């Protein structure tokens, strides 16, 4: 069975990372200087936190990476005692490293820990500071207590641009001997909504189905997504007669699409340069989409909020 592309073609060095170039250069400085602070990476899923942490650890530790780097996931550990025991055991390991270098603990999803557990983690970091550095990762930085943040260099990763994602997909296509035209790669990048992992997974799915011959039309046939043209029809219908547009919107739910998928499709439609809108209309449309996204994140009734989005976008 073929390994997932996200693992098979994961960047191995910071130079291979696309997007967040200022952050990457800053991390390269840490490598060149040989002195790594504790770091807290923050971003939504799929922005490269784990990949960057591994690249940083690999370049800091070189041949000792496997012995001097450990990855833990806060959601996998039963309690803070498990993490404390594993970290302290790891910190006591005797590993020969260049002067000034430290073993590295990478703890993912630290925002899933309780506040009490995070405060305990802060004490663990202090106790092991002589031999070990910590790279933490979270999806929502506001869920990380301030005392823990203050022990770290907080780095917020930004979503890569469409062009950044296209660059990464093109690199993988070259390594995997996949033929893909520019329109096909752009479609995959557009569908990713800034999530590189999503784009790479879709690339692999399309590659398997289309026998490594990717075209825009082929991808549309293979991948189950809401096309911006569908959104355009809903938008146009709703502006003329809202009941008709709302009926078409409801069909998307009936077909099994989630509220998040529908909102993402509306966002792609609003951001698409081929969508004909005045600047004022586009701003109003995207504001309605953004507000709907925020309400959905708060757990409010999804179908009702998507319908509200359509009202606000077309009124």
TrEMBL record:
GO MF, one example: DNA clamp loader activity
A cellular-component GO term for this protein: DNA replication factor C complex
Keyword Nucleotide-binding: yes
Gene3D superfamilies: 1.10.8.60, 1.20.272.10, P-loop containing nucleotide triphosphate hydrolases
GO BP terms: DNA repair; DNA-templated DNA replication
Domain AAA+ ATPase: 35-161
Keywords: ATP-binding, DNA replication, Nucleotide-binding
Pfam families: AAA (PF00004), Rep_fac_C (PF08542)
Keyword ATP-binding: yes
CDD domains registered for this protein in UniProt: AAA, HLD_clamp_RFC
Xref: PANTHER family: REPLICATION FACTOR C / DNA POLYMERASE III GAMMA-TAU SUBUNIT (PTHR11669), REPLICATION FACTOR C SUBUNIT 2 (PTHR11669:SF5)
Sequence similarity: Belongs to the activator 1 small subunits family.
Name under which the protein is recorded: Replication factor C
Annotated organism of origin: Hexamita inflata
